[in-house]
Structures are given as structure tokens and as C-alpha cells.
């Protein structure tokens, strides 16, 4: 209940959605609330209520806004040690509760065939503050069969730590995007987007450490998580939609290629099937597969001599992940819709494409569920 | 990478027909949207970003997280 209370307070602090509504100028829109519940086996639990809305009004204006509260309880592995002979993850801290409030707003205006948008976002938690803004331009060609998109985003983050009150380091990122969406036929469309970013600042995880014991019985080595102070990355995302009128179903495919200058290469595939059932129901089963190779400086065991940069955080390791999900939507009437999603995530060394997953990777198993209600107007 | 991009662009544009507005009934269906349930898509993206090294979506300017 405290989370819902925080969320409602945050939502009311955003009058931007209320202004056009009160002016009576709204042409179309939708508002909704949903709650995400996420639970890892043995580790953390996340509850996230979200309120969101969008509306079109006046002369080609559109406003979108989201506000959410993340409540994280449980523990996160902090130490990787090979004291048992093999590197293992150890949760050393007590179970904690952390709360994050986040909001984002986007305002866009259509001018002829172009749409210009400006966005702002903020994410606040005890040990991390992120502020961002974005600019986006879209242009429709060929009777809106083609849409070109160019965007720029800037993030200014501050990294802090529960354990070290003196830590207060910046991390700044510039993001760039070019995209094209193309209608292929009356039943098919494709969207392809290239996104690249350049970041500078503090990337270390202040809670993660490594302790290594050597066979010769000498002094064990200890290292705090230390990462490069720069990160360049590139992501290429392609989405395909194909509608099958005979069944009224739609095939949804997505592929993302990712690479960065930390040495990480990753592929993400998702296939979904959007199927109306009767007049009111829609079902969407989906399957997501993910595979990544490790960062150059990832190591669960401190080598000798000890390098200046190393991390045993298994999120930088070589592994793969599989996530099936099922979403169901029920249109109650012309205005109201309810929906629910359940999903399962398993990240494991054995799921890495082509094998060769990191030996020290501890399998992550998590379940999640989302329930939501929305009203269109 | 540049060759891949050019190939994709050529593929996309070569395979397409100019579809008139009156033929776009199916394209307007909810399942055909690239931005369906944008709020939920952002929520799920955060869930995966917190456990994986890769990131990136079809938009920029969203805030980051500690995700420890």
C-alpha cells in the first residue's frame, strides 16, 4: 500500500497530463495502471507499480508520461570467492529494501510530415540518481509507407553507495539513434534501428568484490569491482510484423545485435504470436532467447599479477538465457481493458549459443507477473 | 556493419510496395504496432537490462538505474 501511495503522489505531481484534459481539447488518449511482480529463486524480489498515460490533443500534439516505483527486497550476490576450490557467488549483505522512483515525459508535435519530440526522465534511488533528456525527429515519406527517425539522448547519472557515504561519482552518456520503419505490404511491416552510445564516468559496482585463494597457500588476493571509465556500445534492433488475415493472428519477430568496447557481444531473439480470441480476448505467447560473450576484464578468479581492471560480476560473463511468456488481454467494453502477463526467465551457462559458457556462472531462475488496467478516451 | 546496414535497407525497400491508405486496415491492428504497450515494454526492458550486459531499444533518452 505504501508503494501505491508513493506512486499516486508522484503521478499527481505531473500535471502535464491534466492540462489538455481540463482544456477539453483531448482527441484521443489512454491512461492505465499496472503492477509488476518479479521474484528470483533465493535472491531478490521486485514489486513495481506503474502509472502511465498518453493523449493526443490540439493541433497535432501528443503527450506521454510514465511514473513508477521500484521496490526491491532481498539480496544480491556481492562476493565471488574460490575458497571452496571453485569460484562461487556469496551473498554477504543482509536482506535490504531499496526503493526507486522513476518518471518520464515526452511531448511531441506533428508538423506536416514531420514529428518533433522532446523527452525528460528521472530515476531516483538511495545510491543512484539518473537524469536524462531526449530529442527525437520523425519524418514520413511515400504516403507514410516509410518513416525515418533520428534521436539524441543525454544521461547524467550519479553513482553512490549504501556502504560508502563518501562515494559520489558521475557517469555521463550520449545516445544516438537512426531508424527506419517501412510498410512492406498490406500485411507486413519492418522497423530497423541503430542505436549507439558513448559513456564516460564511474562504471564500477560498489557492492561487488572478488577474493581468490591460490594453490601455493599464499596471501589471498582481494579486488573491488573495477571497470573501465569509458564505454562505447552499439545496438542494432530489427522488428518484423506479419498479419495473417485467415487466422487474424500476427507474427512478431525481433532481433537485436549488441557490441561494446568492453568486449561484450550479444544477440537477442524474440518471437511472439498476437492472436485475438473471440471478440474480447487477445493472447500473446512469446519466447525470448539471449546469448552474450563476456567482457574482456571479466574473471571469477583474480589472476597473478593482479590487473588494474577486473570484475567477477556474472552479468559480464558468457551465458545464455531463455524466457517464455504469455500475455492475455480482455477488452471489457469500448473503454476499459485489463491484461495480465506471466513469464519465466532462466539465465545459464549451458544456454549460451555455441557452448563455452562461464563455469562460475550461477543459474538465475526468476518468475514475473504483470497485471494492469487501462481506460481509453 | 555498414554492409549489413545497407543490405538490410535495400532488402526492406526492395521488398516493399507502396500501400495506399485504404489498404492499411490490417496494418492498424494492435498486434502490428511496433510500440504496443510502451509502458510495459519499458518495464520488461528494465527487468532484462538488470541481468544482462546488453542494452538498447528503439528509443533513447530514458533514465538509467543502479541495478546492483
Any overview of this molecule?
The complex is a heterodimer of chains A (377) and B (68). Chain A contains 2 helices and 20 strands. By secondary structure, chain A is mainly β. The radius of gyration of chain A is 23 Å and the shape is globular. The mean pLDDT of chain A is 90. Chain B is 37% helix and 0% strand. Chain B is built from 2 helices and no strands. Classes of the chains: A mainly beta (377), B mainly alpha (68). The interface between A and B is large, with 110 and 51 residues.
Key words describing this protein structure:
heterodimer, A: 377 residues, mainly beta, 16-stranded antiparallel beta barrel, four-stranded mixed beta sheet, 2 helices, 20 strands, 62% strand, B: 68 residues, mainly alpha, elongated
Chart the SSEs and their pairings:
The complex is a heterodimer of chains A (377) and B (68).
Chain A lengths: L1 H11 L5 H5 L3 E15 L4 E13 L3 E14 L4 E3 L6 E3 L5 E16 L2 E12 L2 E14 L4 E14 L9 E17 L2 E14 L7 E4 L8 E4 L5 E15 L4 E12 L4 E13 L3 E12 L26 E13 L4 E13 L15 E13 L1
Parallel strand pairs in A: 4-12
Antiparallel strand pairs in A: 1-2, 1-20, 2-3, 3-6, 4-5, 6-7, 7-8, 8-9, 9-10, 10-11, 11-14, 12-13, 14-15, 15-16, 16-17, 17-18, 18-19, 19-20
Chain B lengths: L1 H13 L23 H12 L19
Amino acid at each position: 500500500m505504501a508503494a501505491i501511495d508513493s506512486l499516486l503522489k508522484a503521478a499527481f505531481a505531473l500535471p502535464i497530463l491534466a492540462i489538455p484534459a481540463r482544456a477539453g481539447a483531448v482527441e484521443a488518449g489512454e491512461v492505465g495502471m499496472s503492477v509488476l511482480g518479479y521474484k528470483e529463486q533465493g535472491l531478490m524480489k521486485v514489486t513495481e507499480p506503474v502509472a502511465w498515460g498518453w493523449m493526443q490533443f490540439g493541433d497535432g500534439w501528443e503527450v506521454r508520461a510514465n511514473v513508477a516505483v521500484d521496490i526491491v527486497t532481498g539480496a544480491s550476490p556481492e562476493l565471488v570467492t574460490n575458497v571452496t576450490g571453485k569460484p562461487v557467488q556469496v551473498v554477504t549483505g543482509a536482506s535490504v529494501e531499496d526503493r526507486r522512483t522513476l518518471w518520464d515525459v515526452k511531448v511531441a508535435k506533428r508538423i506536416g510530415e514531420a514529428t518533433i519530440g522532446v523527452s525528460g526522465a528521472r530515476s531516483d534511488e538511495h545510491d543512484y540518481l539518473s537524469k536524462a533528456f531526449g530529442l527525437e525527429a520523425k519524418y514520413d515519406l511515400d504516403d507514410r509507407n516509410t518513416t525515418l527517425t533520428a534521436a539524441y539522448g543525454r544521461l547524467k547519472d550519479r553513482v553512490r553507495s549504501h556502504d560508502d557515504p563518501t562515494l559520489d561519482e558521475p557517469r555521463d552518456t550520449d545516445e544516438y539513434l537512426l531508424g527506419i520503419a517501412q510498410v512492406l505490404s498490406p500485411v507486413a511491416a519492418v522497423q530497423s534501428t541503430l542505436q549507439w552510445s558513448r559513456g564516460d564516468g564511474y562504471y564500477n559496482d560498489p557492492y561487488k568484490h572478488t577474493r581468490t585463494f591460490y594453490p601455493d597457500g599464499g596471501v589471498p588476493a582481494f579486488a573491488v569491482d573495477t571497470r573501465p571509465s569509458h564505454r562505447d556500445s552499439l545496438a542494432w534492433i530489427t522488428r518484423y510484423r506479419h498479419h495473417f488475415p485467415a487466422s487474424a493472428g500476427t507474427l512478431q519477430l525481433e532481433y537485436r545485435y549488441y557490441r561494446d568496447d568492453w568486449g561484450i557481444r550479444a544477440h537477442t531473439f524474440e518471437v511472439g504470436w498476437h492472436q485475438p480470441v473471440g471478440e474480447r480476448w487477445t493472447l500473446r505467447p512469446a519466447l525470448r532467447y539471449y546469448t552474450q560473450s563476456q567482457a574482456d576484464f571479466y574473471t571469477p578468479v583474480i589472476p597473478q599479477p593482479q590487473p588494474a581492471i577486473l570484475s567477477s560480476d556474472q552479468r559480464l560473463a558468457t551465458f545464455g538465457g531463455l524466457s517464455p511468456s504469455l500475455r492475455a488481454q480482455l477488452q471489457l467494453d469500448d473503454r476499459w481493458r485489463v491484461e495480465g502477463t506471466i513469464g519465466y526467465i532462466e539465465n545459464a551457462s549451458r544456454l549460451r549459443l555455441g557452448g563455452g559458457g562461464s563455469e562460475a556462472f550461477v543459474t538465475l531462475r526468476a518468475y514475473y507477473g504483470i497485471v494492469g488496467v487501462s481506460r481509453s478516451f | 556493419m555498414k554492409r549489413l546496414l545497407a543490405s538490410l535497407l535495400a532488402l526492406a525497400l526492395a521488398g516493399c510496395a507502396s500501400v495506399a491508405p485504404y489498404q492499411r486496415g490490417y496494418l492498424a491492428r494492435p498486434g502490428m504496432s511496433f510500440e504496443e504497450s510502451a509502458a510495459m515494454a519499458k518495464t520488461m526492458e528494465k527487468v532484462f537490462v538488470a541481468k544482462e550486459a546488453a542494452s538498447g531499444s528503439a528509443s533513447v533518452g530514458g533514465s538509467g538505474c543502479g541495478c546492483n
